[in-house]
Amino acid sequence: MKLHEKILTHYLSCTSPVDKEGYLYKKKERNATYQRRWFVLKANLLFYQDRPADRHLLGVIVLEGCAVRHSEPDGQFAFSLVFEGPGLKTYRFAAGDGQTQESWVKALLSASHCYLSLLVRDLGRQYEEAKQQQGSGESRPSSSVSALKQSTPNFLFPVQGPTAVVRVGRSFSAGTVLQAPSIPTKVVAKKSPKLWPRRNAHVTPLNGPAPLYGEWPLVDFDPLEDFSKLHDYYGQEVKKAREEWLRSRRAEEEHSDGDLIDLG
Amino acid sequence: MRFNEKELVSLSRQPSEMAAELGMRGPKKGDVVKKRLVKLVVNFLFYFRIDEEEPIGALLLEQCRVEREDSQSFSITFLDEAERKYLFECDSEEQRRQWVDSIMKASYEFMRKNLIFYRTEIHRLTGKDPLEQYGISDETRFQVNNGLRLMPRDTSSL
Lengths: 264, 158
Description:
Chain A contains 5 helices and 8 strands. Chain A has a domain at 5-132: Pleckstrin-homology domain (PH domain)/Phosphotyrosine-binding domain (PTB) (PH-domain like). Chain A has helices at residues 5-13, 98-109, 113-136, 145-149, 227-255, and strands at residues 2-3, 20-27, 34-42, 45-49, 59-62, 66-70, 78-83, 90-94. In chain B, β2 and β3 form a beta hairpin. The longest helix of chain B is centred in the C-terminal third of the chain and has 19 residues, at 108-126. A 7-stranded antiparallel beta sheet of chain B has the order 5-4-3-2-8-7-6, with helices on one face. Helix content of chain B is 26%, strand content 28%. At the A-B interface, β1, α1, β5 and α3 of A face β1, α1, β3, β5 and α2 of B. Chain A: Plays a role in endocytic trafficking. Required for receptor recycling from endosomes, both to the trans-Golgi network and the plasma membrane. Chain A: Residues 17-113 form the PH domain.
């Protein structure tokens, strides 16, 4: 498949801001050594090159359908991007210190298009409710459909956009403060069918088993309706994972000796 | 430039609301209209030969201009270069409208702008930052005034 690279490099170099950049160690697949690379994160694209000033880009990783995991077994300050599906890769990285590691993990967790899409929808709802409350002076959350039907300038209503039915795995939560608000912000009224299309149009026929995308985690709510709940759900998982990791790190520090990263 | 091809191909197989057989013409002189299965997934436009499983190509829908060409067709121009203009022929005016609308709204940058708008407005109306509850209010990508500016790079050698 051809990826039109010039479009990507043009996007990278245009004046819209970069989301994060810095040195990381990337593990080579074959011989499990780490190579230091300069990474640039922009939107849902992770570019890498030898040095910041280099014009030549070594590669890009499209960040959709992957989970971000701490992977201490790989080494100190290590984390990985795990693409879920048959035959799909895991990219392994290591940072120079714990702060850099956390910072990158957090940035990558919120990098996917899917994540942004849900976040925008959620905020769109909150915005409509806030406007409604402002207008009527009510203090309780509005559940009226009319709030949604209120006309807004065209460009501010992304809800009609294409459904990115991509499985995001664990890439939703930000890892630290993940308490959802106690007052649910979801709108009770049923959405019109147009806003939440469920039918799957035109799936390319496959011979092999299709990956289980489009399947949300087994929770008892509709994740598209209550982003904060989904966020919280993943947040709990990540919290647990972090706690375990912190525990094992402490244990490790008592036994650590020498470099855990082979820079040879 | 290396890229995660398998993963991208896998992404192209997502069920998509916007997937249809359209006439598609490439940007080069001499390119003719060919029937393709065109599919919009996140901010990528994939295009397949009819009944093939793997896409021929993937177009990133950022920094591009989508416009109506005539009642039933639209174009996407990349890099601000007329030489990189792709033409798409739809079956109806309604279909053309839907595609133009969807492509525009699929752009990450478009979504980001909306997010920043909502964030600012919600804060103005309620005094609260809606991103705080998710613990992402410090993330660079959601900043209202993003101070990080990447100097324009000379990519002519790429």
